[in-house]
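Key idea: predict the complex, not the pieces.
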Amino acid sequence: MNDDTRRTENGASVKVRRVVAYAVLILMSFLCLIWFYILFINASRSHSELSTGFTPIPSSYALKNFMSVIRGSQPFARGMLNSLIISVCCATLSTYFSAMTAYAIHVYDFKLKKFMFTFILMIMMIPTQVTALGFLQLVTKMKLEDNFIPLIVPTIAAPAVFFYMKQYMESALPLSLVESARIDGAGEFRTFNQIVLPLMRPAIAVQAIFSFVQNWNNYFTPALILHKDNMKTLPILIATLRSADFLKFDMGSVYMSIAFSIFPVIIVYLILSKNIVGGVAAGAVKG
Amino acid sequence: MNNKKSKVVQYNRWGYIFLIPFVVVYLIFQMIPLVTTVYNSFFENYRSGLTQIGPNFIGLENYKTIFTNGDLPAYTKNTLIMWVLGFVPQIIISLLLGAWFTDPSLRLKGQRFFKTVIYLPNLIMASAFSMLFFTLFAKTGPINSILVSLGVLSEPYAFMDNVWSVRGLVAFMNMIMWFGNTTILLMAGMLGIDTSLFEAAEVDGATASQIFWRITLPLLRPILIYVMITSLIGGLQMFDVPQILTNGTGDPARTSMTLIMYLNKHLFSKNMGLGGALSVFLFIITGILSLIVFKFSGNTDPDGKK
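Result:
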């Protein structure tokens, strides 16, 4: 009897808690999505429509706004191409070389192994901003301003990507596999490229996505290095949009420019979301 | 026997070879810049109008300047205020959502959908997101138009002219961008807790909130500290959002100017001395915080044995 009442009480409290949980989840989802919904609506409206206030129904100026962004005074199409080139190169280099670094630590035994591993973990959290001053001087001395090289090449040394790859290898790369490749007479380099890399594909995919997005969104360093209009990336163009005299702009194309920078990532994310959300959890520190 | 050993040594030489790209790139693009940044911090080196002053060696003078001219404390305070304003709601919401997602008795439906949605803002270009907020919260923007038409406000509110509305917007954007990530990290920690503890507590008649406060939270302490310190390191790097929202001015009256915005100013005006001293200050702070994270991550054995 006593036990029975407790069970119904529990049942009721589970129901209440479930309702509260759904309410909070829906509220937070709303707070995550509403901005992109407003952006989507406003990017499809004309300047004069926008000045009359907000309506929740899209209008028909999307294509027109899109064309005026492409043909406008700011080189957004070129900016997207630049962002794309940099992000693809960074994603490729950082995953390939981080896998290589992780392979060196995971498979071989050498004197400096422990030191290198500890060192890389210790520098993992140091932000690039604190060495930006020296970095900028170096880039100027190397005459690499207005060049993508100083944005791409440094991603070869990516401690966070390395750490992820190393953790993945611990669970997915048995040393016996490397041994048997050696017995079959494969060279070390070939073993890495033809046996280990294909095995690492899931980890590489996750990290390539993160690396791509991170570099696509990066504003601080590119803004210090890229000054010429035709070299600028999307975040820099967004910043010039912000610093220009706002009232002179066609608001429809301002919204379209923002959409232009945000929506490609959203679309890719929606396609690949399963891998991405799983990847975040897998990269989490073991507490 | 001897032959075999030398062969192993020969293989192990490849460990060094495979490390070459990382080490070379790290030395050139991280180590040299770090050294020259520290070096610069001891020199007077800036432009005054068209004349270049320095570089002259002045010892610790730059450090004295940044600590005493009032800018550094003010901008540190701004950065920390905006971080706390964003982090507190973020950690509360993330703990709640994490606990709900991992609670088997709730059996929430659509978990994958919700996780996908709450993680989405993390991938959005911060500068574009900030630009979006600037246009949405402008005096003539849609948020004001909605609030006025709903009768919440009698006239459009100038969000960009008020200290706390600007700071609040920055904190809110950071919160929205990061709570999904924090939720997923905390969930990983919560799923790692031995389920028999929950079952035992339930058999003993503990309520959901008792289980949360007495079991989940104490066992989550290491990962909570990890989340807090990494978030603080990220908070100290706060740049894109306030930079774009305030067009780099940190207005009103530089109350939303962050440390990295201040550094960025020095980098653009080529004040290498003060910029260097500020960088070293940030390096030391983030270095100390990193060491704490490093202690907590507890993964220092390259062979994965702990």
